[in-house]
Fold these 4 entries.
Entry 1:
Amino acid sequence: PAAVDNLFKLHTPTYDVHVMIFIGFGFLMTFLKRYGFSSVGLNLLLAAFALQWGLIMQGLWHLEDGKIKVSIFKMINADFSTATVLISFGAVLGKTSPVQLLIMTILEITIFGINEHLVAEILGANDVGASMIIHAFGAYFGLAVARMLYRPALRNSHENDGSVYHSDLFAMIGTVFLWMFWPSFNSAIAESGTDQLMAVTNTYFSLAACVLSAYAVSSLVEHKGKLDMVHIQNATLAGGVAVGTCADMDIGPFGAMIIGFVAGIISTLGFKFLTPILASNLGIQDTCGVHNLHGMPGILGGIAGIVAVALGKKNGSAAMQGAALASSLGFALVGGTITGLIMKLPFWGQPPDQNCFDDSIYWEVII
Amino acid sequence: PAAVDNLFKLHTPTYDVHVMIFIGFGFLMTFLKRYGFSSVGLNLLLAAFALQWGLIMQGLWHLEDGKIKVSIFKMINADFSTATVLISFGAVLGKTSPVQLLIMTILEITIFGINEHLVAEILGANDVGASMIIHAFGAYFGLAVARMLYRPALRNSHENDGSVYHSDLFAMIGTVFLWMFWPSFNSAIAESGTDQLMAVTNTYFSLAACVLSAYAVSSLVEHKGKLDMVHIQNATLAGGVAVGTCADMDIGPFGAMIIGFVAGIISTLGFKFLTPILASNLGIQDTCGVHNLHGMPGILGGIAGIVAVALGKKNGSAAMQGAALASSLGFALVGGTITGLIMKLPFWGQPPDQNCFDDSIYWEVII
Amino acid sequence: PAAVDNLFKLHTPTYDVHVMIFIGFGFLMTFLKRYGFSSVGLNLLLAAFALQWGLIMQGLWHLEDGKIKVSIFKMINADFSTATVLISFGAVLGKTSPVQLLIMTILEITIFGINEHLVAEILGANDVGASMIIHAFGAYFGLAVARMLYRPALRNSHENDGSVYHSDLFAMIGTVFLWMFWPSFNSAIAESGTDQLMAVTNTYFSLAACVLSAYAVSSLVEHKGKLDMVHIQNATLAGGVAVGTCADMDIGPFGAMIIGFVAGIISTLGFKFLTPILASNLGIQDTCGVHNLHGMPGILGGIAGIVAVALGKKNGSAAMQGAALASSLGFALVGGTITGLIMKLPFWGQPPDQNCFDDSIYWEVII
């Protein structure tokens, strides 16, 4: 029957998204030299918890005969809501306890559910690859939390807040899996058929163009034309984020490539110039630079969506697209601020400054 | 034609199971600091050999016109039979020569084939995710072999019988791939349709619940509430094992979650308290703790299957389910004991005690 | 509609090939102790660039209404053309600048397109898994480039031209993903149905047999019967290369196994005995030994194809198969020589001898 075909047709993108969540995000964060256990381990914990909480939250919005029903489609959506938490996790990586992170998960997924309902059902905005409701939302939520948890003592960087050779290679496992499967992420809930095909190809082209600009800019801004591994691990993915909203729109290969190319530039420049300023001037210590990978490219994606709808590339209203972007940012900043305040309460076991970015506070580590 | 559709429909779960066998099991065992080459390398050798031997064994049970015919379905089954060998490999990891392991492969797959035929064809028992015929069988077979190969000199643990920071991260690659694709393992041979859908969702819920209990118990039993990487690498997967027999039964999300939750507890407690006792009191030196990941959760899965069939969640007979569990354990213990005795013969190149857990006895290693 | 079904049916092999290109090739080359960033990083850069260039080149050969049209089928083909570049990259790994490699990419994909058109359209030869047009072509192209870029100062091996323990484990990630997904590579463009099924099973059997012979020969030729990680990382894959041309032919499981078995032997012996001779006597310094993994097994595949067509295992002409092999080798050697001469021009930033095999010349590396 139809339900079964559906299961099968959704099977592959479901797994691809699953791989992005657990391997992609998990290993991307292993770049820190002494925080690999927490990166991949807490990623697993938070994601496994978030999947369940996400299914419950969705179920409450869509009760059937008073019951929560489960479907493959809802499981993909639960993976999606999990992604927001993992993006925010990147902003506070190394500076929070597991209990704080579980609290963040509960609150963030709840607020995500409200904003998603508003954007998709009330505003009727397009956001198939979720540039706005996942990437921008997750990034600014995490940045607001990071602002609330500001640690003055970490202004002069911490000795463990950096990578070693092999930790950077572990992180590349995450990068490459994210890069490869991003077309599935952006097409997973696209309408089957031409729309889904476009979502795959647009994302593919955006990512390919983004790699080129990320490498070029990294080489341009670094000393002696060298490449910086942080840029390669992250900015090469910004094209996937930025093309998300437009992924199933008829923007053409060149449209997609322009979006990706610009995203790679913005993201790399952000890592080089903006992240240090945010830390020193605004008190926002963004461990993984999620502002550069998810925040700015997410906004770029939202704006591209406004323009594309205005140009008639998809049914919809440019005003509603704009409202969706504003709503996502607003919920993220307000929600993140409140969540950060709650996380700051003194009884959640937040690690002291000197134990930040160090697995040995939460794990049995043999040195 | 139907055969081709079949190829395609089975394509994805086939590959997922393949990834579990070669990446999952292979990297899960790389946690030992000086035994990574053997873990992933011998895993590849044994699996490639076992696939072929498994196809021949299956073929002999199901001759068509006197010929062995190959199909995608039989290739999945060959991957399954391979899994039993890799589970047993975990029990004797670091203490056996490649030749000993090849002998174990030949014997174990042969005995597996007999037990599988008995359970599936004669007893007609349900075991879609193979809690009994793969996990419990493979674990107790391996433990029986380990008992036969007992090394008194290793009672006080060997200096190489432990992990280092990056070897634990390599192992997490295995853990996460196993965790992600376990729903495919448990659903690969389920009846297409609702049964397969249930096998996917039940496994997904069981695994998600299992992660939570494994983390909770690990933190409870460890010093200062810390987490132990061994528990996270292994016990988070016990939910996949334990829900195997019931995976395609109508046990509901909560039924699946309870099974996974209990499995996570049992498995973590087993690593903490039971493995040392087995080693010191019974002479069973279980390198990877397969008793905790596959043995006890496999029995739990068998018992859950008996209960579920008794409650009418699936056609079948509770008595036959019980007989299937007993048969699997019996064949494993007797078969493993005999196999262990054969492996103990003095001309298979078993490594001396001081070279255990050390790649350099079988590999050219540059230190 | 048909196009959409097509999208879906091609989805899984597409992604499998994608994983081989980005994870498989990328991590396979991380075996060098100080060249991991470049291996996986430049692999990503070259592949992302090559995909786009490959689509343009294909598009020019197959203009539709004066336009380049994109399809999933063409995207697979672009991945395929990318593979040739990554094979050649292996031959010159550690001795070329990113700019040199981009020039090689542009030229090699262009020449690949000409040869592929000749082989497939003009000669009408069979080469479904591309033993000739990708593997042999890419290898001999790279070897010709390496000959042109010969560095006498590296005759006595460079201190960084070797592996360390964990770099070899990273490389095994590449090996295992390549091994697992090779059946998809060889079947991706096979005719849907029985042909595709045969391409999957033949590749599976060839690879399984190849593992056994590679391990056996490695142990036979090494000191004290030890295994060499270089052989295991590479020669275990030669069966996938060698069965490529015949993959969709009715050669039977034993035919496939014989091809794989022989490929494993040739490849391992090549690493042990031939590579040193090529370097010392012919001035061909083949960093990854692509001659052993892709070159000789590719020729073996071409010859097996000639024999199989002569035996009537597939429609076609043995003479045309022979011409296809000769064409692939000819274009590779001539094209590679010209490309190597262009790459030798003094303004592409080729690294000096003492900085070969060292990430720190192109990457910000914290030691």
Entry 2:
Amino acid sequence: PGIRALADYERLAADLMPPASWTYLQDGTGDGLTVAQNRIAFDRIGLLPRILPDLRNATTQLDLFGQRHAAPILLAPVAYQRIAHPDGELATIRAATAMGCGMILSTLASVTLEETAAARAAAAPGLGAPPAALWFQLYMQEGRADTLTLVRRAEAAGYEAVVLTVDASIKRTAFALPPGVEAVNLRGIARPAHTSQVLGPILFGTPLAQTTPRWEDLSWLRGETRLPLLVKGVMAPDDARLAIEHGADGLIVSNHGGRVLDGMPAAIDCLAAIAAIVGERMPILVDGGIRRGTDVVKALALGATAVLLGRPQVHALAVAGVAGVAHALLMLRSELELAMAQLGCTTLADITPDRLTPLR
Amino acid sequence: PGIRALADYERLAADLMPPASWTYLQDGTGDGLTVAQNRIAFDRIGLLPRILPDLRNATTQLDLFGQRHAAPILLAPVAYQRIAHPDGELATIRAATAMGCGMILSTLASVTLEETAAARAAAAPGLGAPPAALWFQLYMQEGRADTLTLVRRAEAAGYEAVVLTVDASIKRTAFALPPGVEAVNLRGIARPAHTSQVLGPILFGTPLAQTTPRWEDLSWLRGETRLPLLVKGVMAPDDARLAIEHGADGLIVSNHGGRVLDGMPAAIDCLAAIAAIVGERMPILVDGGIRRGTDVVKALALGATAVLLGRPQVHALAVAGVAGVAHALLMLRSELELAMAQLGCTTLADITPDRLTPLR
Amino acid sequence: PGIRALADYERLAADLMPPASWTYLQDGTGDGLTVAQNRIAFDRIGLLPRILPDLRNATTQLDLFGQRHAAPILLAPVAYQRIAHPDGELATIRAATAMGCGMILSTLASVTLEETAAARAAAAPGLGAPPAALWFQLYMQEGRADTLTLVRRAEAAGYEAVVLTVDASIKRTAFALPPGVEAVNLRGIARPAHTSQVLGPILFGTPLAQTTPRWEDLSWLRGETRLPLLVKGVMAPDDARLAIEHGADGLIVSNHGGRVLDGMPAAIDCLAAIAAIVGERMPILVDGGIRRGTDVVKALALGATAVLLGRPQVHALAVAGVAGVAHALLMLRSELELAMAQLGCTTLADITPDRLTPLR
Amino acid sequence: PGIRALADYERLAADLMPPASWTYLQDGTGDGLTVAQNRIAFDRIGLLPRILPDLRNATTQLDLFGQRHAAPILLAPVAYQRIAHPDGELATIRAATAMGCGMILSTLASVTLEETAAARAAAAPGLGAPPAALWFQLYMQEGRADTLTLVRRAEAAGYEAVVLTVDASIKRTAFALPPGVEAVNLRGIARPAHTSQVLGPILFGTPLAQTTPRWEDLSWLRGETRLPLLVKGVMAPDDARLAIEHGADGLIVSNHGGRVLDGMPAAIDCLAAIAAIVGERMPILVDGGIRRGTDVVKALALGATAVLLGRPQVHALAVAGVAGVAHALLMLRSELELAMAQLGCTTLADITPDRLTPLR
Ligand SMILES: Cc1cc2nc3c(=O)[nH]c(=O)nc-3n(C[C@H](O)[C@H](O)[C@H](O)COP(=O)(O)O)c2cc1C
Ligand SMILES: Cc1cc2nc3c(=O)[nH]c(=O)nc-3n(C[C@H](O)[C@H](O)[C@H](O)COP(=O)(O)O)c2cc1C
Ligand SMILES: Cc1cc2nc3c(=O)[nH]c(=O)nc-3n(C[C@H](O)[C@H](O)[C@H](O)COP(=O)(O)O)c2cc1C
Ligand SMILES: Cc1cc2nc3c(=O)[nH]c(=O)nc-3n(C[C@H](O)[C@H](O)[C@H](O)COP(=O)(O)O)c2cc1C
């Protein structure tokens, strides 16, 4: 049957992807409490529409760091996209460009950041649209020189922002990458490892724990680049404050899609407290469980400037490559417009907290 | 086995109706959150009876806009009833007349509004009962002249009120009407369409979004007819206020049976706040999820003057035509009397908020 | 396997009883919301034990209207017990007598009230125990003379109290009694009937609704008998007040096991508010969903003097007759002692509200 | 496939253990409400991480009664471990020693307390680690002399603390121990019994109820030993106060794994109120439902000094003997380190209540 919602791509991708890849993509850590929260939280937020609005100048457009976005929806950094489709991140950036949506390329992309930037440049003119935003998601490397190399490459390739992910410095996975898929951007960079001698240190005291990034590393990074710098993985209001003090230009409220520490609340449930602290000072993005246009509206009503889409981009990529991702973005934006119209919101600024009401 | 409750008609209709029609009838939009809320909300409202009442003058009668109703139950406007039964709306009005219950005919009825009015007139005398109320549900048309034509026709045919539905100006459906079923009242009226060129506007900027009705259209309509004018689809208290200011004579609290914007709260959960604003100024009706006599009681205790019944009329129509709808109304009214008796309420006015208590 | 709890009798009875009888016994009215509440409410009440108590003088004994009860557990009035076992209420009273627990005989018993009293008298001596309490549950009859006849018969037969049930004057059932089972105590008494002519009155205006008992009937009854008079079916605090004013000597908080008005809260959830009004003035009993010794403790902690057991007596009766009912009472009392010991309660008076805590 | 979490051992043990033993091990009392609460409660507690922490000196070490523990995790007293594995408690103490985790031996151990102590002594040197803590869990016996004999034996064998369990003096079980498994430490000690003559006393008035331990017995015990004395089974804040007054050196908040009184709240839900009363005066341990490193963190954030692990040790023992238990402890400690790292906690003292947040 037809594909009418992001959930349809998820359903189809479940059959198409090899089980190990599917598990890697979908599963949360631990008992999946946080993955579940990410959805439950959205489903409990109710929408209270206003009737008979004037929709004649309605628009979903957004300006972010001086760049135009067709809608407040970006593609979240998701590693190793060639797991889902041979073209991997190249397909994704082409779809994003076609739809006027921004994309954040992962440090662990399975395509080089230069190739991705080139694919954007190549796709844009044919579409008669301005190139969509392309940001680089950074994982700090053990050596600062290695980190800096990544940042310089991103700057050189024309990326418009750096997103420093701070919530996954220590993360466990049992997934063995399929042959031919690897973190190509990290070729030649040493990565710290767990010690696993029996009766030796488990995590604390191992090189891994000794070298995780600290606040001082954020300050250092801030001093090294002129690109806008966003911190991804902020959940506590006090960390939002610290991130601002250490030079962040934007925050991404995220629990990493429930993949890191099980028991974290839904990102959407942490948003309002952070928005209260940040105010109008900088953009706040949020991700985790966004699957519907109504979810986008809920996030914006709670203080988000825009949202990121994680797993659904991979579902669509697995099912139909570039066309799938473009279609997924189209459906989501279309649902967003419909929801705004039905709520009586003409612009993103109309999406205020008084449109929300708790559900049973 | 026997048909003892509206749910039995639903069960039977599920087997009788073609799957596509059934899906169209039953489904909510999106993930069905709001459809579910409409029932969950009723099920969580508890009833606290008073004992040893004097039931000797008990009655369920109600006067609305100067017309007598046997019970505070009307048939909601439901489009295209010939999907369920060849007689469609004609069967429905006959059943309503027999039971002394009002009916609201949809703009999208599959029978003309004139024929429906004629069927009422023909049925009433044989029943020895005064004709039941017949109201016309209006969807504003792209051109005001077309809208006015509909209103004039309804006035001429003897409809006693106009119900302007404001919550479904933009609504998506994938349902293809079966052959022979159409919106006969709209023959000859142009309807706006979505633009669906790829990379063109999705909704915002299309003719559809440019022409949705606005508050000024309500004022205009108010000036055009002397019939009582109800606004259907009010959920926010501020909109109740605006509707009154713009000339409404009655409000219908409704989320359109969960068919428009997923994530809306149950209509019953929005009722009390609106009743607090409206007070005794005008009747307030509510629909969405009414399936039991106890639900009617709960609605009235929360401030409703009467309730509308949506899908169940179609279930009964599909199963047994005019007899089904009449029987469904009889069962509901019978449950209402039983509930009132057991609660110790003699008249509708006895159904006060102190009879309610939250359930676990 | 073994029978270790009341639930085991329920399980076994489900297989033994004819489906129609089982449905009649078990089902609640409407959608079963209230039946469910009766259990959910108990399951959400938590128990907070105190440790290292002195249990040397522990006892579950209770004095009620001057009569000794082995435990604060009585058998609720349940109609037509010969549905479950040929000996019907005779088996039940024998079991109650053996266990020192009181029994309340229904007006709708399938054995005469005189035979039941005789069975108690015959059983007691052999057991070397004082006869257990035997009360008569009264449904008011259409004519006061008929009602009075019942009361006089109960007085003459040695019943120690009258329980006037006020919550089921109008109650629907579709159950056809099996051959040989009838309300023998009502032989010769006329019973009002529903009018069911189509388009005639449904309930309001029928003889049934015209003759339901009113507060004045309670006052009248109070004047007619010197037996303690309990009112069964009180749920609203204001009705508790009125019942006291009209001469009640005891109250039974009950929703009739969820069999009358669907949507009523759990009886246990209405208890505390009523206890707050009644104070120490008179005994308060409660029923609905009592299945465990811990439920008895919860009821007492919330202000009950004792509890009634409804359906479980019939389950045990169906499975094993007199031995079953006696065993069921033994298990429940045994669980009660265990719970009291583990909670650190030596007497019923030790079971105070501070032993309760909400569960998740 | 692989064993990655304690739940995997549970799954495997379910297939390996005989059904009767499995039921004995797993089941809670009554309807299992409390067993369920023990897990539900943890799953509803959310964790709010802080980002970019300095993990260079991170450690899970803990000093308790002057002894070093590798992690704040001890093995709870669990009776009759030879049910699960022929080596029983000997395997368990070897695993605990290998992992630097303490163990509490049950009075009802299926191996003598002297053999257990000897096994610890024998295992420690080979591991090059200091011997892990070994405490003795005491059930008071009917005669004080018998109780004292147990305590003296534990002292002589080098146990470092006595844990008096007060919540299971009266507890029902229908489990028949398999041949060859018995409470070897109680050989030659008389045990009180239930009276079960029909119509005789059930529990109250039997020898069992007459001899349950009382507060005065705690005072007496306190005077008899110089070992640290912990009271296991405290749930009410007032009992915490009394336990301190009667000489306890530590408290264990526990509902005995839901095996005693059904309806008790989760132990974790009683912890904070007790911690508020105890303050820094003494260690507070908690058990019941600990299955994940994140559960350990939640317990510590709510005021626990350490946690006990009950059933999971038996699951691992049944599956893989000493290696299983050691591996289970390793996994749990490893999860704990991971959780602390991801939460940004460097030491146990960093695990403060502000890291918690309710989940939906
Ligand atoms: C398979 C997968 C890989 C991911 N890889 C990265 C990554 O490399 N860097 C990063 O910052 N976030 C990564 N994330 C997290 C996403 O950026 C995003 O926070 C998350 O997926 C949002 O939740 P959602 O999947 O429910 O939309 C990954 C998520 C998934 C599912
Ligand atoms: C199949 C269907 C068609 C409907 N058509 C209309 C309509 O034409 N006009 C309108 O105002 N409401 C329409 N409604 C909404 C109903 O009037 C009513 O608000 C809703 O069905 C009430 O919820 P219920 O079905 O749970 O009783 C329709 C509902 C259904 C189910
Ligand atoms: C089959 C059945 C018949 C009953 N008959 C009577 C009755 O004749 N009179 C009455 O006062 N209550 C009657 N009751 C209600 C019980 O007295 C009692 O209130 C109820 O069963 C308690 O709930 P429980 O069944 O959950 O314990 C009846 C209940 C059942 C299940
Ligand atoms: C099979 C079994 C036997 C137990 N035996 C004892 C015992 O002898 N003494 C004691 O104090 N607690 C005993 N307990 C309770 C445990 O010490 C502990 O409180 C409980 O198991 C913790 O819950 P958990 O199993 O969910 O981790 C036993 C528990 C189980 C499951």
Entry 3:
Amino acid sequence: MSLSITPYELIYWPGIPGRGEHVRLALEATGTLYTDVAKSDPGVAVSTIQSLVADDAGDNTSSSPAGVPGNPPGLAPPFLRHGDRVLISQTPNILLYLAQRLGLAGAGSAPGDGDLGMYHVNQLVLTALDGLSDEAHDAHHPIASGLYYEDQRAEAKRRAENYRGERLPKFLGYFERVIKGNEERGGKGGWLYGGGLTAADLVVFQGVDGIKYAFPKAMGKLEASGNYDRVFALHKAVAGLPKVKAYLESERRAPYGMGIYRKYPELDDE
Amino acid sequence: MSLSITPYELIYWPGIPGRGEHVRLALEATGTLYTDVAKSDPGVAVSTIQSLVADDAGDNTSSSPAGVPGNPPGLAPPFLRHGDRVLISQTPNILLYLAQRLGLAGAGSAPGDGDLGMYHVNQLVLTALDGLSDEAHDAHHPIASGLYYEDQRAEAKRRAENYRGERLPKFLGYFERVIKGNEERGGKGGWLYGGGLTAADLVVFQGVDGIKYAFPKAMGKLEASGNYDRVFALHKAVAGLPKVKAYLESERRAPYGMGIYRKYPELDDE
């Protein structure tokens, strides 16, 4: 490790992929140096997050041992710390920061576009997080994230049915269109934007991956329909990138469990 | 109007403030030249949006008369068109674009911070949209945005109770902390970030404003508690900015109705 490199520090809950996984994938796919306290010391990860998000944590993150003065506090993890001055939160915001620095923002793919690629990729990242992460979560927690699933099972059954039948196909169809159109816009076939891998591809990969785990029957039918071949091919292509493949096969990749993507058979197709 | 100025074009549904209102407020608060097809020609607004988001709209927005080649399609309005080359969607993404160009990104407020203000303001914008817009909407539509309220009234009652009692105070408390801390971080008292108005203040303003309309009793109690004085003062301060005040008093400001913020008394406190 060169002294001139400031490693990125991911601060997220231990034990689940969760929202932190999007940050991990951006770092892993680019072979970037980072620390991951959830893996290196789960107990410290929990206490660090608690100090950063506590209601009575004070007025500034500097009151937390993990805080960095000058940065507004965050409401929830993931957090990304980068050196002595940067501590930011909100998954799409962290991805915006990393994409700009790790070559995942589609820059250079459309000559003369200036910073337009940053906004295009950000738009796709936000939409993928909405439809393939947040709504997948709300399918099992439609009433309150603070209540147990068992206390909102009836409502979850209704919401999951709508998600499988309406929302999920809508989002998959959208990304199918985006991939198809990218080539016509002068980009590289198979990817969402521009000439290669961006943060948006990684978020769609993780969303499809998690939803395949949570709703195997519904996703099996959607895949078999042939209507979303490009999206499923993108999932496979990202999984096959050498650095991503090595990560997915490592112990660093947490198994799905009680996070965003949960396997409740009663919420899946019959 | 100088020929050298390229006006911003907001494309959003007519008749409701909705997500488009965040874009309008950024443009209005800065006295920026823009067109607003929802106001100038509601019929054209609807047909334009339909052509931009249609499932069979083709692979590229260029197949829509409103499209701009080179931009990936969007899933939903608001859209922002800027000149011959830029067409972007996703509310926080449009605000990121505008904040950078209209001086609403907190730039210059912390000397030596480079582009850090952009990420800080984006973080606050995203959190305000999550808690004061999306979750306020889901309080009356917890099962499916495509179903009528009447078909999810029982579930809405449960979700709204959780929103009023848990989520809303959590978000208000967070922004109270952010405002309080900004002064300690060297910023200007009363604002969320840096030396003055940013896009984040405008989103919090609109969220508080809409929630006051939708949940007048719950918000009355929260305001009377004295725990969120800075947040309510920020709402008042933004409303009192001369350009914002003039806008709010104009016909351009759409009344609340059947959009994000809805007044269903059975979802409010007793």
Entry 4:
Amino acid sequence: MQRKYLAKIFVTVRPSVLDPAGVAVQSGLKQMGYDNVEQVRIGKYIEVTIISPDEPKARQDLNQMCEQMLANPVIENYRFDLIEVESQTGVF
Amino acid sequence: MQRKYLAKIFVTVRPSVLDPAGVAVQSGLKQMGYDNVEQVRIGKYIEVTIISPDEPKARQDLNQMCEQMLANPVIENYRFDLIEVESQTGVF
């Protein structure tokens, strides 16, 4: 039996790393009159739907995907929430 | 008295809109051997620290920022969680 999981992945620039996109957006917001914005940090939000026999295997795959492709571990952190969306029987 | 809020903003491509970046990442993951990935959707995760007198005002500002700059309402949805991180007295 295979299960379907939805992973909500957050990839953020490490706090010690400069985020030029965030600085640019903050500057733009200031020009629009929002001078009450203290900081802007821009990251990625990725939703991955994955078929897996169980949750530990899904988590293992997702960690590998994040480290190898979705995040750059040198300058980014990642974390994800995992929810089971549907159980499926049959062959994939 | 001014309060400091942290908004965690999620900007996602509307379900009816094609997400080419997500399709490309899914294809890349498949080439790496992850053929159990059914869908990938890529959005933005933005953290904004904002100074505001109260929560309703902070929410109002953030909605305007999202609609005017952070998201493209034609093809993207947004939502945010707001938490108070610190209370501050004094003049800003």
